[in-house]
Design brief:
Blueprint lengths: L17 E8 L4 E6 L3 E6 L9 E4 L4 E7 L3 E6 L4 E3 H6 L13 E10 L2 E10 L2 E8 L4 E7 L7 E9 L2 E8 L3 E8 L10 E3 L2 E5 L1 E2 L2 E12 L2 E10 L5 E8 L4 E7 L4 E7 L3 E6 L2 E9 L4 H11 L28 E7 L18 H9 L5 H12 L7 H18 L6 H10 L10 H8 L2 H10 L5 H13 L2 H4 L46 H8 L7 H12 L4 H8 L4 H20 L13 H21 L1 H26 L1 H13 L14
Parallel strand pairs: 11-15
Antiparallel strand pairs: 1-2, 2-3, 3-4, 5-6, 6-7, 8-9, 9-10, 10-11, 12-13, 13-14, 14-16, 17-18, 18-19, 19-20, 20-21, 22-23, 23-24, 24-25
InterPro entries: NOL11, Nol11_C, NOL11_N
Subcellular location: Nucleus, Nucleolus
Pfam families: Nol11_C, NOL11_N
Length: 674
C-alpha cells in the first residue's frame, strides 16, 4: 500500500464477472473467488493464470464468502444456506437449502465463538428486517425479526460477539445508532420467530450540524467509527470520518475527506481502509480506556474547526514529511498511508502523537552545522525502541537527504550506510535516499538498499541497473562493494580473470549438439565461447546480483528495460547466461555464497531481457553468437532432463530397493533398466 506496488494480478475471462469479494484463506494462504454466482476458484500467490486455477461449480448462487483466521472460510448462499468451505468442497454439487423466502440479504458477518464459527446475516422483505444466526458446524439456525422504527429504516449493520451474546448495531436513517442484543442459544431446534427489541445507543447530534452516516464499524466496546456526510447550516455537506464514544455519547474526533469516498469503510487490525478520491487511504487508530474526563475534553475539542492536528513540513522544499492525525487521550488516529511514494512530494511517514517533537527537532536542525546535525540525529536514533522508531529513522534519513539536495558538497556516506545496514528501513520511509545515491554514484549504498528494501519501484531498480552496467571496471576497483554474493563461484587469478574450466555436467559439453542451431560457428570459437569467463569484474557482478534480488512486477519493469542501451543489454544477458551455466554445473542448481542469485531469478531476468530486446538482439551481429550459444545450452538441458524423465520409473524402483536392502548383507545385483 505504501508504494502502490502491485504484488499480484489475476483476471477472469472476457464475459465472466466476479460476483462477490475475494478473500484469503488464512490457514492455506490461498485466495478464494466466485465468478458468475456459482463458479468457485481457489489459487495461490504463485499461480499466474486464474483460468488454470482450481475450479468447482456449485449448485446455488453464492452471496459472500467470509474468512475467519481460526475457523476457515464460511460460504453464505443467496438462499440463506451456509457451509464451511471444507464441507462444500467434499461435494460441490450438494443441494443447498433455501432458508429465506422472498427475502433479500442486506448484510452478513462471520465471527468465532470459542471454537465454533458463527455467521449472522440480515434480510429485508416488504420493509421488514430479519436477523439470522447460524452455527454451520452445529447445524444451528435461529431467525429473529427486528422491531420496526417509525419513519426510518436501517442503512447498515455491524456486529460483535461478547460473552455468548451478539451485539448488533444498526445505523438508521434518522441519524441514530441502535443496539440489539441477541443471546447465542445452545439448542439446535428452530423456534418460533422472535421480535428483537432495540435500544438507542448513539445519536449523531452536534449543535448546528447533521451527520448522515453511510457506513459503521465497531472499534471497541466504547467506540464506533462512522463514515458519512456532515451538513452544517449554510454550507455544502462534506464527507468525513468520525469517531464516537458510545459510553458518553460524545464525538471524539473527526476528519474531513474533501475528495469524496465510496461510502464504504473497512476496519482490520486497528486500521481503517477507505476509498478517498481515487486512492486507498489507510488510517491507523488506537483506542484507550474511555473516561468521562477524556470524553468531556473531546466534546470541547470537537467544537473547534480543526479537530485533528497536522504536522506539515512544507517548508522543507514543500515536502510533506510528517502527517499526524492526533486526538488527545481516548482515540488517536495516525495517517499511515494516503500516498503515492513514487512521487517525492507525497512522502508521508507514520508518526504517533508522542513523536511530534521529532518533527520540531528536525525543523530546528534545518540550518545547524553538519557536526551538530549528525550528533543530534545519532542521539535521536539511540533512544529506547518505540513503536514508531522506524518512522523516526525514516525522518532522520529524509532530513539528511534533504540537506544533500540543498548542499551538493554535503554527502554523509558512512552515516547513511550505517543507518541502512543497522536499521530495518524500506524505500517508502526514505524515498529520496536512492535518488541521492544515484546522483552521487554511491554504488555501495545502492547495493545495500537493493538487498534490503522490499518495496523499491521498478523505475529505481532500472536506474540502478543502468548505472551498474555503465560504470567502468577501472572505477569500480576503487569502490568498496560487498562481494559475498560472488566470491564463492567466480574463481579469480591475479589479473582478475576467471579460471576457465569446461562445463561437462547436467548434459552439456562444448563438443555436443553442434547441429542444434542453424548458425554455424567454427569449433575453436565455439569452444572459447562455451567456456567463456565471467564477462564482468567481481565488483560489477556483485552489484548486478543485488539487482537480481530486488522484487519487481514484470508489467512495470518491462517498459523501463526497453530503454536499456543495446550494448548494455547484451552485456547483462552475457552475465545472466554465465550465471545460468554456472548454476547448471551444480546438481542442485544453486550457486554458493551469501545472497547469490537463484536459478529462478536468473531465468526470470533472462526472459525479461529477451522480451524487452529480442528484436534488437536478433539484428545485432555481436549478439548472434550469444543467442546461438544460449539456444544450444537450453536445448541441451531440455534433452537431458527429458532423458531423465524417461528413466524416472527405474530410478524410483532403485530407491525403493535400496530401502528394502539390509545394510549388513553383501550382495551383487543386476538390475535391467528397460
Amino acid at each position: 500500500i505504501s508504494d502502490q506496488k502491485p504484488l499480484g494480478c489475476w483476471s477472469v475471462k472476457h464475459g465472466q464477472i466476479l460476483t462477490c469479494p475475494v478473500v484469503c484463506n488464512f490457514e492455506t494462504h490461498e485466495y478464494i473467488a466466485v465468478h458468475d454466482d456459482k463458479v468457485l476458484r481457489i489459487w495461490k500467490n504463485e499461480d499466474i493464470n486464474l483460468d488454470k486455477a482450481f475450479k468447482a461449480t456449485l449448485s446455488a448462487d453464492v452471496y459472500r464468502i467470509h474468512s475467519l483466521p481460526d475457523g476457515g472460510p464460511v460460504v453464505l448462499f443467496r438462499g440463506g444456506g451456509v457451509r464451511t468451505l471444507d464441507v462444500l468442497l467434499e461435494a460441490p454439487q450438494q443441494e443447498i437449502e433455501n432458508v429465506i423466502s422472498d427475502e433479500v440479504i442486506r448484510w452478513s458477518g462471520a465471527f468465532m465463538e470459542g471454537q465454533q464459527p458463527v455467521l449472522i446475516f440480515t434480510t429485508e422483505k416488504d420493509g421488514d428486517f430479519f436477523v439470522y444466526v447460524q452455527k454451520p458446524k452445529l447445524s444451528s439456525l435461529h431467525k429473529y425479526k427486528l422491531e420496526q422504527q417509525e419513519s426510518s429504516k436501517p442503512l447498515c449493520f455491524t456486529a460483535h460477539i461478547t460473552n455468548q451474546t451478539v451485539t448488533l448495531l444498526c445505523l438508521y436513517s434518522n441519524d441514530s445508532v441502535y443496539q440489539v442484543l441477541i443471546p447465542l442459544q445452545q439448542d439446535t431446534e428452530e423456534e418460533e420467530e422472535e421480535i428483537l427489541s432495540k435500544s438507542l445507543l448513539l445519536n449523531f447530534s452536534v449543535p448546528g450540524t447533521v451527520l448522515k452516516g453511510t457506513s459503521l464499524v465497531v472499534l471497541d466496546k466504547d467506540h464506533v467509527a462512522v463514515l458519512g456526510s456532515l451538513a452544517v447550516a449554510g454550507k455544502e455537506p462534506r464527507e468525513c470520518l468520525s469517531i464516537w464514544n458510545t459510553k458518553f455519547q460524545t464525538l471524539q474526533t473527526s476528519k474531513e475527506l474533501p475528495l469524496g469516498t465510496s461510502g464504504q469503510l473497512w476496519c482490520y487490525e486497528e486500521k481503517f481502509f477507505l476509498i478517498h478520491g481515487k486512492v486507498l487511504t489507510v488510517i491507523m487508530y488506537k483506542c484507550e480506556t474511555s473516561s468521562l474526563a477524556a470524553a468531556v475534553g473531546k466534546l470541547k475539542d470537537s467544537q473547534n474547526s480543526d479537530v485533528s492536528s497536522f504536522v506539515n513540513w512544507n517548508t522543507l522544499e514543500d515536502e510533506e514529511l510528517v502527517v499526524s492525525l492526533q486526538s488527545q487521550e481516548s482515540v488517536a488516529l495516525r495517517a499511515e498511508s494516503k500516498m503515492n511514494l513514487r512521487s517525492r512530494r507525497n512522502t508521508v511517514a507514520k508518526v504517533q502523537p508522542e513523536t511530534l517533537s521529532v518533527g520540531q527537532l528536525l525543523l530546528n536542525l534545518k540550518d545547524a552545522s553538519t557536526y551538530v546535525l549528525e550528533t543530534e540525529l545519532r542521539q535521536l536514533m539511540s533512544k529506547a525502541p518505540t513503536p514508531d522508531l522506524q518512522a523516526t529513522i525514516g525522518c532522520v534519513v529524509t532530513a539528511l537527504t534533504d540537506r544533500c539536495k540543498r548542499n551538493p558538497k554535503y554527502y554523509p556516506q558512512n552515516f547513511l550506510l550505517e543507518i541502512v545496514e543497522t536499521r530495518d528501513l524500506s524505500y517508502s520511509l526514505c524515498p529520496d535516499l536512492m535518488a541521492v545515491a544515484l546522483e552521487k554514484k554511491d554504488m555501495h549504498l545502492l547495493q545495500i538498499c537493493l538487498e534490503r528494501f522490499p518495496d523499491i519501484p521498478e523505475e529505481i531498480t532500472y536506474a540502478c541497473l543502468k548505472a551498474f552496467l555503465s560504470i567502468s571496471e577501472a572505477h569500480l576497483q576503487n569502490i568498496d562493494v560487498n562481494l559475498d554474493s560472488v566470491i564463492c563461484y567466480i574463481d579469480v587469478e591475479f589479473d582478475d580473470k576467471e579460471v576457465k574450466t569446461e562445463i561437462v555436467e547436467n548434459g552439456f559439453s562444448a563438443e555436443m549438439d553442434q547441429d542444434m542451431c542453424d548458425t554455424k560457428i567454427p569449433k575453436e570459437r565455439q569452444f572459447r565461447s562455451d567456456v567463456e569467463s565471467c564477462p564482468v569484474g567481481l565488483q560489477k557482478a556483485a552489484l548486478l546480483n543485488a539487482v537480481l534480488h530486488s522484487a519487481y512486477t514484470e508489467t512495470f519493469l518491462l517498459p523501463h528495460l526497453k530503454n536499456l542501451p543495446a550494448q548494455q543489454a547484451i552485456l547483462f544477458l552475457r552475465y545472466l547466461y554465465y550465471l545460468y551455466v554456472k548454476c547448471s554445473e551444480k546438481v542442485n542448481t544453486t550457486l554458493p555464497g551469501i545472497r547469490s542469485p537463484t536459478i529462478n531469478q536468473i531465468m526470470d531476468w533472462m526472459c525479461l531481457l529477451l522480451d524487452a530486446h529480442f528484436t534488437v538482439m536478433v539484428m545485432l551481429p555481436e549478439a548472434k553468437e550469444l543467442l546461438s550459444n544460449l539456444h544450444k545450452f537450453v536445448r541441451a538441458q531440455v534433452r537431458f532432463y527429458s532423458e531423465l524423465n524417461k528413466i524416472e520409473g527405474s530410478l524410483r524402483e532403485l530407491q525403493r530397493l535400496n530401502h528394502l536392502r539390509e545394510s549388513q548383507t553383501y550382495s551383487i545385483e543386476v538390475l535391467e533398466i528397460i
